Amino acid sequence: MARLLAPMRDALKRIARASKNEYEVEDLESEAYLEAVAYVAENGDVAPEDAALQEGILTRLMRRFGFFANYKDRGAYRLDQESRTDDGEFVVNSVAARLTADVSTEPAEILERAQREREQEEIVSGRFSEAVAYLRTLQNFHGGKAELANYLAIRPRTLDTRLRRAMVLEGRQPSMFDGIELLSEDFHPAQGLLRRRRAFSKSHRICGEARPWQAHLYSRFGLILLRG
């Protein structure tokens, strides 16, 4: 990851400034990594320093977060967007379908759903990974991402970026600690500390320090100014 980010660090800083400080460099670094994963999945393995990879990532990040971003609709999701199958038939948007789906109240189906959830919990409980750590943490915060972001002293969008990165890593590289170390159900991360940003001051001292040309000016005309 360091080889990927090092050549583009200055460009990421410029994009962060172009986003009107809505995004920090750390957020963009995570997004750059996700873009690289998508690029490799589509084009095959390439060196992190590859010029085409670097340029493609920076172009997409600038469009998403920089000058050309639509800040009002950038985070929106089109629930009315439909896609077509190979046969030309319309397919209902999957997100909209889940949001509008009826939740069964039949006792048998409730028990079956609870059983599936327990089985999934048993599967992930033996995997020590960042994704599972976030899962445990969100459960202990009752699923409140805003509360968790405030507790960790980060922005909600930064938390969303880290969650996405954790899920990508989980899918590509399962934990090396599988079956060895468990995350307890009461797992709680260490509380974050707020980092104070330096206040930008537009005021400048008239002569905070003498520049070389100033010293030359004083030495040349100082006696003239003192005359009379």
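the 2nd protein, sequnce then structure:
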Amino acid sequence: MGARLGVVNALLAQVLPFAIAAAISPTVLTIVLLILAGAHKPLIRAWAFTLGGVAFTILFVWLSVTIFGNLGDAGTGHQSMGSRIVKLVFAAVLLALAVRQVIRARHPKPAAGGPNKWQRRLANARTIDFVAVGFMAMLSNASTLVMILAGAHVVTVSQAPDSAKVEAAIMLGVFAALPMLLPVLGVTAFGSHADGALKALNKFTTAHRAAINAGILVFFALLLVWSAAK
């Protein structure tokens, strides 16, 4: 029992950095906050958005673990050279995106439709449409997807028992869904008492979006380099 617990804890510790990284998603968080700030059924729409996002997250984690589980290094305890190269390529892409964020921040271009484009789109959408919006928001959330892929690869390479791998995969999915779940759960539990905190959070993420995104991308890239070098 003690030996199994040690194996499970070791795997969870290896996956945890990628799970935490997958939970850092300013874009998804901003969309949730915009929905909750809406005038028409904000909580119901936010839950619909979260349902779509969580559905995609579950599907993507399952597909990632399934695909990586059929690769040559699955269950060996060691990642292949090909896996290391892929991680380094992803790290280079993330660094390039970070540089792009900095350049955009220094030379901003006015967004088509103005700054309230997202608010207008969300206001005009049907409630059921928010399920698809949540699904697509996670589908287009490249940095989180890369972290899920990296975490799923750690899970499948591990020599831990299948039950431990399932626990690690669940942890990965739960963390990735936190940017959607936490604001919605907060409003559901505390109602209008959560408004102040959510408005402050929305103001902060909006004002520092470029710096936050660039910093996150650099962190993700370094995490991938560290993982490839292990």
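The chain has one domain: 19-229. Residues 162-190 form the longest helix (29 residues).
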